[in-house]
Amino acid sequence: MKWLLLILALLSLPAGAEEPARLDLGGSALVATGRGWGGPKPLELRLSLTKAVPYRTYLVDGPPRLIVDLKGADLGLALPQDLFGADLSPAIRWGPYGRDWARVVVELPGPYRIDSAGQRARAALSQITVALAPVAAQDFAPRPSATAALRDLPEPADVPGPPPDEAFTVVLDPGHGGFDPGALAEGESEANLVLVFSLELRAALQARGVTVEMTRTDDSFVALERRMTTARQARADLFISLHADALPEGQAAGATIYVWNPAADARAADQLTLRHDRDDLLAGADLTGHDDALAGVLMDFARTDTQPRSESFARWLTSRMSLMGIGMHDRPVQRATYSVLKSPDIPSVLLELGFISDHDDRANLLNPQWRDRMVKAVSEAVVGWARDEAARAAMLRQ
User: Fold this and answer.
1) Residue 131 · residue 116 · CB < 8 Å
2) Range of 50's domain?
3) How far apart are CA 258 and CA 309, in angstroms?
4) For 231, left (φ over 0), alpha (ψ -120 to 50), or beta?
5) pTM of the model
6) pLDDT, tens digit, for every residue of 165-198?
7) Residue 158 covered by a domain
């Protein structure tokens, strides 16, 4: 099981070893920040890391490239082609460089200058941002020796994606349904709006090779606990519950992502052991005949893996929505104790697509063009996160 492999890998670290900074690919991107007016566009490279590190940036020529060196960073689990906006660069590569360094090389579509470079550290993440502006060829000022700058950079590791016999499965959970229409506004129901979106998202994910199961495909009612059971029976790798709630006008607008609140673990374990059969608590583990205490301990143990993975997917999703221009709540990721987030062994999020009580959000949900953008943001987040998960699992197996 993934969570057991993770624990074993952590236990194998040497005592006192300092964990390197790792790239959070879901929060990283190469984006165009303006128009090129017939030439290269202004660019911004954003590298999100699990902690702040010393770094240096400079340009080299032959062809023009941006070099970013990171001290104490390990980028081995991430694939350059999965960086959001990688298609803005002719080529991107990265790998270890010398002792305790990692190097990122971004080939540029023309001559540029570094307008600014900075690092902003937050509680659990740090982001390095490098702003690049196109310049005339005579104004390009790279380091004089590109050969010296690129010396000793190995080829990036070829980390395979999931093999064909290990299909990635997502369970989509359109909220409400049947006699429970959810929120209502201007003749529209939450249950119908999220079902339409879920069916469109299912088609987009299936086109990308993802296996998709749904808790409902029509206007029928499915009990909350049954939704989790459906996900476990499908051996889901990810569970996404979709909603479009209502609040008094002016109180909330924009997409919001909810993840489980770990402070409620004990209460959730008690509720699960009461409401579910023992063979329906953890995928791959039959707890029939075991007491509540043991079941609770095993569920807590499983959550040490699934909780950070849920939060990682939430970061992938907020990044993609932001880069696609999707309006989000002031606090786009929040913690909650919704029943559909309780599963201890399946990474789970609840996505509020918007608030049906807000005029603009409701208009978005009824707009096929907006839904197309949102579907693309969610499906890209799912596929990117799945590849990242596969890479991490491959490293744990080594």
Assistant:
1) yes
2) 19-149
3) 13
4) alpha
5) 0.65
6) 458 999 999 999 999 999 999 899 999 999 999 9
7) no
